[in-house]
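BUG-408 | component: ligand-complex export | severity: low

The export step for pyridoxal-5'-phosphate jobs runs without errors, but we want the raw record kept on the ticket for reference. Input record follows.
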Amino acid sequence: MALDIEAIRADFPILGRTLPNGKKLVYFDNAATSQKPQCVIDAMSRYYEEYNSNAHRANHTLADEATTALESAREKISSYFGTSPDQMIYTSGATEAINLVAYGWARENLDEGDVVVLTEMEHHADIVPWQQMSIDKGVEVRYVPIDTESFTLDMDAFEVALDGASLVCVVHTSNVLGVRNPVEKIVKMSHSVGARVLIDCAQGAPHERIDFDSLGADFVAISAHKMAGPTGIGCILVKRDAMAEMGPFMTGGSMIKRVTTEGSTFQEGHAMFETGTPRIAEAIGWGAAVEWLDQFDMREVHDHINDVASWTAAQMMDIPGIKIYGDPDRDDSSGAVSFLHESIQSQDLALLLDEGGFAVRTGHHCAQPLMDALGVPSTNRASFWIYNTMGEAESFVEYLSQVIERFA
Ligand SMILES: Cc1ncc(COP(=O)(O)O)c(C=O)c1O
């Protein structure tokens, strides 16, 4: 059944917004964060209005309701990602999820000279923790280059980099290029040399159904706020045997079994890594978001986004002076269109687009090594999601052409 985009839009109150300059909002910054449907906002408000309480602590009714809602969200979210609740650890987002692998797993299991393989297209969230691990533990960090013609990962170089690797960390879908990496192949190749694999699905999860158990990666990092959920929450999905190899990262309340003045013992499984007061409202909101997303066939969602993005990119290529970074025409691209104009600075272009009501992102997108590989300091990026329409894309292309005609 075709997606009813107008009905989907009606779920998002913000999409009806008019900006202070009287322009109607056209939100094309979805790779930074998606908008939230009313059911997510309602679920979080209901928690605060009706049963706000700390979870896993007291015996009163409100605390029971909060604990039940928190754990039921864990069931919904882990099941949405094709796994069971014991293989999911709540984090503050994909950044904390990857740091948990670095400080919870790599610090315990890697030593000087052990090899961590990254790619040039990683987000800083999947680079800086490994650079720190290199300083702290002496691990060697290898970067797999991208082919700057096709904007894809150099898989021959990947194979070479795997030699002697202990851990491979690869982004599922680039937040800049919209390129989806062959993660299934990457998992198989990495396991064949005995390396553990982390896939950063911050951008992948909003565009396709991630099935943790069938993907087979040891670790999968997910961010809620890019897939209709609230900010401040995400998770790391961890295979049971990899979780058994992990040691505590953040320490304090909730993650302990017993604390004495002599020392402490810790909870087992995911409870060892969820420290302090849980993100209760956020988990409830994310649970509502996955229920909302679950009504759609993600293949249809992907195709819709891809149609809008590839049409937009094709039109933009006809605008004099525009260069696109990525290949939005590829069937597996994710809806991010990065571009630059040869003479209008990216910041200026973003401000001009904002004047027309178009929200796009500008900057290095937390991917400076990728910017270096592309030979640019920054790009503009229009990124599309489920509620964007072809009509919005048409008005964007028209406005962009006018701006360039006037200012270039
Ligand atoms: C590919 C990728 N990885 C990681 C992150 C960080 O995610 P979070 O905001 O949940 O920490 C982002 C956010 O933009 C991203 O695009």
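Assignee comment: Attached the raw record above. Residues 42-293 form a domain with the Aspartate Aminotransferase; domain 2 fold (CATH 3.40.640.10).
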